[in-house]
Amino acid sequence: MKPIMIGTTATATSTADESKLAVTVGSGSLRVYATPMMSALMEEAACKAIEPYLEDGETTVGTYLELKHNTPTPEGMNVTAEAEIIGVSGREVTYSITARDECGEIGSCIHKRVQVGADRFMQKASSKQPNQ
Predict the structure, then answer these.
(1) Nearest residue to 99 (alpha-carbon basis) of 112, 87, 85, 84
(2) CA–CA distance, 55 with 2 (Å, rounded to integer)
(3) Average per-residue pLDDT in the chain?
(4) Structural domain 9-124, CATH architecture
(5) Do 95 and 82 meet the contact criterion of CB atoms below 8 Å apart?
(6) Which is the catalytic residue, given 9, 11, 24, 35?
(7) Which distant-in-sequence residues (6+ apart) come within 8 Å of 27 by Cβ?
(8) How confident is the model at residue 64 (pLDDT cuts 50, 70, 90)?
(9) 44, 48, 19, 12: which is closest to 34 by C-alpha?
(10) Spacing of C-alpha 115 from chain mean position
(11) Cα gap 111→125, rounded to integer Å
(12) 90: buried, middle or exposed (CB in 10 Å: 19+, 13-18, 0-12)?
């Protein structure tokens, strides 16, 4: 991995459409943007922030997420997550991420990702499968 600059930011945007509502994804019974979808959007922004620093064959995997979802977003509204790299310790990268809809902040999190070799990581994951 290339040296990582603290303060690097990236964003990811989504719309609270039918596929991302709590009632659809099973995280509740209401037609509002689902917490798991906000979490996924935050991770997407984090991945975009680290992308310029990865070498061929490298990727990152999420290892920690401390999340607050403070206010609902109705169906049809856009949501944007902005991730900022706030720390690096060896292969571990820490982010502060904020999610906003068109009316303001809806959630925030501290997120950690670890740099891994994609092939080696997938071999490790595949080794959990019973012999085929």
Answers:
(1) 84
(2) 7
(3) 96
(4) Roll (3.10)
(5) no
(6) 35
(7) 34, 35, 36
(8) very high
(9) 19
(10) 14
(11) 22
(12) exposed
- The owner of tokens 């061929």 is 56
**Region for residue 76 given its phi and psi (left: phi exceeds 0; alpha: psi -120 to 50; beta: otherwise):** left
* Beta-bridge partner residues of 9: 84
Strand, coil or helix: 109: strand
What are 12's two structure tokens? 């990811």
Tokens of 107: 């959630």
| Buried b / exposed e along 72-84 (16+ C-beta atoms within 10 A) | ebebebebbbbbb
Reply yes or no on whether the pLDDT at 110 is more than 80.
Answer: yes
pLDDT at 132 over 60: no
| 64 φ, ψ (degrees, to nearest 5) | -155, 140
Q: Which of 69, 73, 82, 111 is catalytic?
A: 69
Answer yes or no: 35 catalytic: yes
- For residue 116 the two structure tokens come to 């891994």
pTM for the full predicted model: 0.94
For the question of residue 43 being annotated catalytic, the response is: yes
AA identity, residue 63: T
Residue given tokens 């690096």 in the structure block: 88
Q: How far is CA 5 from the centre of its chain?
A: 19
